[in-house]
Each structure stands twice: as C-alpha cells, then as structure tokens.
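Summary of Year 1 activities. Much of the first year was spent building the evaluation harness for sequence design. The harness presents a backbone, in tokenized form, and records the residue chosen at every position. We chose the following record to illustrate the format because it has been used consistently in internal testing since the harness was completed.
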C-alpha cells in the first residue's frame, strides 16, 4: 500500500517537474516580466522610506484608532512628515518609469541614459495634455498608473530598440564626442515616440491611463479575496516543495498589483479611512513564511530527535529577520529523518 502511494507521488512530482514547471518558467521568465520585476525591486527603497514616514506621521494623529495621538509632540509636524510619503509613494510610477528604461537597456544592451529618459518622457506625455497655470496634474503619478505605464513605457522602448537595430538614426562623424553622437542617434526614435504619444493624449484626448486602469480594475478588486489568495498560497508552496523559487516566478505580475494595493491602503490610512485591500506583501509573507515556519520550528523544538531539536534552536532567530528560506531549505535536506 505504501509502495503504491509512493509511486503515485513520484509520478505526480515527475509530471509537475517535467511538464508543468518548465512551462511556468518559460511564461514567467520572459524578458519583459524580468524587466518589470527588477524595476519594482529598484523602487522598493523609495516605497519603504515613504511607508516609514507615513507611519511616523500617523503617530501624531488620531488615524491609528485612538482618541488622542500616540505621540502628541508629532502632531504639529504630521503634515510635513507625511509630505515625504506623498513625494515617494505618491510619485511611485514616475520613478518606476525611469527604472523600466534602465532595466530595459540592461536587458537588451542599449544606452541606459537614452532609455531611462525616453521612458520618463513617454510617461509624462501619456499622462499630461495641458499645463494649466504652469502646473502639472500629478494624480496619475502614484501607483494607480503602474500597469498603464508598463505598457506605454515598454512600447516606447521597443520602438527605440527597433530604430537602433534597424539603423534608423542620425549618424555622426567619428570625430564627434560619444555623448553627442548618442544624443543625435536617439533623436529619431525620441521624435517618433514623442509625436505618437502627444497625438494620443493631447490631440485626440485619449486618456490611456484611465482606460487601461478601468479595464483592469475588476481584475484587481476580484483578485483581493480569500479564494484567489489561498489558491496562490497552495501553488506557491507546491512549487517551493519542488525546489522552484515561486516568489521570483510570480514577482513580475503580482508585485505591481500588491504595490497598487499598498499605495491605496496608504492613501486611505492617511485620510483616516478604512483600508480597502487585505492582500499586501506583509500579509502574504506572514501566511506563507512566518506563521508556517514558526509553527514548524516550535514543533521541532519538542522533537525527541536530537539533531531536529538542535536545528530548531539554531533556526528560530531567523524567524525575526527575513529571509526565511535558510530554515526551509535546511529542513528539506533533513526531512527524511523525521520520526
């Protein structure tokens, strides 16, 4: 009986490793998804800094659910401290657009400065159709424009790459300084992208950010529920059990969604409103790692097997500081010795 169970598990594992996992790897390891994933990682320090500043500013208000501020001496400075959150998380997509250009250039071995500036230019042109009173509308600089910016920036950069590869550029004599030569070689793709997005947003008054965000809004709201989250957790753990780094696999798709949810929660917290989203990175990591691994290590702490008890004592400190992968990977190597 045990042999048939083992045989079934071996067959299932083989199917996943040989059939399903390679397909997932091909889908989620596409260059575009890697660019998006790396770009999200690049802006993470800004998001963390903005989140810390938001938390500090809320300590001087009653938005934490208390009748009086937790730290009353911060009350006069709450707005000024919150400004740092507005200029970091509130401008998340602006920074992200530059990061997309830099990572795209690195992926395809193009000029980083040209790609970074082109991506920034496309972001501004697709978001602005007027400068009334010499002011810009920054309402789309936050997280809600992340997905539209991914599409418009990648499209602009593909146009740039095509022009460079097809030699659709202005060539300067050999004696011209390299910086000047690169500037002129980028002029044609910059003009194509600039005119194209200017026509869309300014002349035809097509708000791509609003259109794309409106189309994706049901997906974002529908994904933030216990059933989708549980399904993701099961797939995540299944892939981890087979030695596949599931977090990296889904990062390019899920991270932008979670960033949008975190930014929306941040705005709601700042306004003293109920948080609209539950699925955030903190909740995900707690459910996937902190809770299960802590329970496992506590169980092993009372094990009669000496090396498992020692393993638990040595691994428990890691629970208080990510990553949690070391205890999991070490336990995977010793699990066959479980009593």
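For this record, the design step produced the sequence shown next.
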């Amino acid at each position: 009986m045990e042999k048939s169970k083992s045989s079934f598990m071996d067959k299932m594992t083989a199917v996943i490793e040989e059939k399903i996992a390679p397909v997932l790897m091909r889908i989620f390891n596409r260059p575009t998804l890697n660019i998006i994933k790396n770009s999200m990682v690049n802006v993470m320090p800004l998001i963390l800094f903005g989140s810390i500043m938001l938390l500090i500013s809320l300590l001087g208000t009653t938005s934490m659910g208390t009748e009086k501020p937790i730290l009353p001496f911060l009350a006069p400075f709450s707005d000024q401290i919150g400004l740092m959150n507005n200029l970091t998380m509130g401008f998340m997509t602006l920074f992200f657009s530059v990061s997309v250009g830099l990572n795209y250039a690195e992926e395809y071995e193009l000029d980083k400065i040209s790609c970074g500036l082109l991506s920034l230019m496309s972001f501004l042109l697709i978001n602005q159709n007027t400068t009334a009173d010499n002011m810009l509308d920054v309402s789309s600089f936050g997280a809600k424009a992340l997905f539209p910016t991914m599409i418009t920036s990648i499209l602009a950069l593909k146009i740039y790459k095509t022009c460079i590869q097809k030699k659709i550029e202005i060539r300067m004599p050999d004696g011209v300084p390299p910086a000047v030569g690169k500037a002129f070689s980028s002029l044609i793709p910059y003009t194509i992208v600039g005119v194209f997005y200017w026509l869309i947003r300014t002349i035809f008054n097509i708000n791509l950010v609003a259109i794309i965000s409106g189309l994706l809004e049901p997906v974002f709201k529908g994904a933030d529920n216990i059933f989708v989250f549980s399904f993701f957790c099961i797939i995540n753990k299944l892939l981890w059990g087979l030695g596949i780094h599931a977090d990296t696999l889904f990062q390019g798709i899920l991270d932008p969604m979670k960033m949008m949810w975190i930014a929306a929660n941040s705005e709601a917290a700042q306004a003293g409103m109920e948080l609209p989203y539950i699925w955030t990175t903190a909740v995900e990591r707690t459910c996937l790692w902190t809770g299960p691994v802590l329970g496992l290590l506590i169980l092993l702490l009372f094990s009669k097997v000496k090396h498992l008890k020692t393993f638990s004592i040595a691994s428990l400190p890691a629970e208080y500081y990510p990553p949690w992968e070391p205890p999991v990977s070490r336990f995977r190597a010793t699990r066959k010795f479980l009593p």
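Confidence is low (pLDDT under 50) at residues 1-5. Quantitative recovery figures across the full test set are reported in Table 2.
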